[in-house]
Amino acid sequence: MGKTKHIFTSLFLFFTITSTFSQSEEIKDLPQLFKDREYQEVIDILSSEDEKRELSLDELFYLTKAYGRMGQYSNGLVYAERMKNICLAQKDTTNLVRALNLKAENVIDLGRYEIGVKFCEEASTVFRTQDSLEYQKLCFKWGMMLYHTQQFKDAYDVYNKITHKPYRELSLFTNNYALTLMGIEKWDEALKYLKKSISLDNSTGKNTSINLSNMANIYINLKQWKQAEIHLDSAVKSLQKGNSLIARKAIYNNYFELFKKQNNIEKAMFTLDEIEKINQDIFNQKVNEKLQALESANSSKVSLTKKVKVIDDQLQLSQRQMLWGAVISLLLIIGLLTTLFIYKYRNIMAAHENVLVEQKLLRSQMTPHFIFNSLSVLQGMILNKEDRKAVSYLSKFSKLLRLILENSREKLVQLEDELNAVQHYADLQNMRSQNQFTYTLTFKNKLPSQNILIPPMLIQPFVENAIEHGFKKDFINAKIDVDILFKDNKLTCIISDNGIGVDSDTNKSNSKKKSLATKITSERLKIISREFKMESGVHVQDRQQFNEKGTLVTLILPYKINKDA
Description:
The chain has about 575 residues and is an alpha+beta fold. It folds into three domains: about 30-265, Tetratricopeptide repeat domain (Serine Threonine Protein Phosphatase 5, Tetratricopeptide repeat, Alpha Horseshoe); about 265-410; about 430-565, 2-Layer Sandwich (Heat Shock Protein 90), CATH 3.30.565.10. It has 23 helices and eight strands. It has helices at about 1-20, 20-25, 30-35, 40-50, 55-70, 75-90, 95-110, 115-125, 130-150, 150-160, 165-170, 170-185, 185-205, 210-220, 225-240, 245-260, 265-310, 315-350, 355-385, 385-410, 415-430, 460-470, 510-530, and strands at about 415, 435-445, 450-455, 480-485, 490-495, 535-540, 550-555, 560. Strand 6 and strand 7 (about 550-555) form a beta hairpin. Helix 7 runs parallel beside helix 9 (about 130-150) and helix 13 (about 185-205) runs antiparallel to helix 14 (about 210-220). The longest helix has about 45 residues, at about 265-310. The radius of gyration is 27 Å and the shape is globular. It comes from Aureibaculum algae. This is Signal transduction histidine kinase internal region domain-containing protein.
């Protein structure tokens, strides 16, 4: 039976390969379709062909590019990876460098900058001398990913590797190069390149709003307020309907910085409201992209099962039924959870009227970031057919999401509920992380009451810092301990890990993120302390001073005892 199936499979593959030429003749002119911006038609044609036969490398190239142009970056990344693997198997270096550039495009569009930097560093070793132009194309993406991870000097050095004159005359180069110059605070030179970029865009009829906004940012740093406001007003006027939400947000972020530095609180608060509206639109857009990517992934699986059906019809039928049932069920659950989250999130935003400016800006971005990452992990489990793990992850995710939604509506929450949320968060991170860690919660002594209320979201950011930045790759026996202590009428939470410690963390981007979390929490505690009329604060130490490894965070929490409970 095994030999019969092997012979049948070989004959099937031979027939598929020999019939490729006649089938490919029926496809319309792909380069012309792409030139005419008929991206969806390219996707429809090649997806249909992919069900019948193996696509050529040129066809995979156009399919990947079309997905990118349609904003379906997750699908583009899948096909870029497929093209890369085929090129490696065939030892086709010429097409391999094209595939690497495609993958870099989708990685930067997905905002996975740290992963993208590492990928570009590894990919750069593949390019040969004759691949100079393709290598310089890679530098466009590499430089921007370094810029977005705040490695400004490295971004500047990478962009200087782009020496091909036609490339350096592109507005894409002049604009991005200006950003790297802004990163290393070469303001005058950055202005020169931005003006050149605006001139190029005007000559080709392109929109100049982003360049005008970047020029305003330079004038803000130079404290030339009038020039900054003039350029921001011009940027808003030049905004068009097709401009991305990210571009619109960048302009209003610069308005916010301008008014904030001018101490114009009224205008700053108005601008912040606009930013929150844009954040909501971005959130809805990204949720739709995730769901669309899941649907497309499902469609790809159907295409694969059609091929398998020719080889073994009965096995395909049972697998197809199970796969459809699992995927559709999970899609329905994700859709319901997403709808619930959007509804709850909008209500929370409407209810918060008197929160400080920095606190409002942080909360408008924190929860969507967590949701997007969780959806990506869940998508990966579905694609890898890890059904049981996906169901377990979804169960824990829904519990945590419910706690986040409930707690975020309240000014004060039960200490027990807040600790449960941290526990669920740690469990989820353990499921998605390659570095497993042990999480332990201990009550050092008896609490004065079971009904202690504390402000929400004070403990979780420091547990997140320990997980994300405390442990290097392949760290063994990682531990995070959370101790609750009540003494002298003070409620103290001690968070400790056995990782690399704060003094050993040389990554500038990570250090800035952790110091920002500490600063915002510290300012928030000061405000709450005045309201509660009790002492509170946060203190971060490297355990090296105690001849131990890791980081020690001491939180003195403001609290109230609910006597009505």
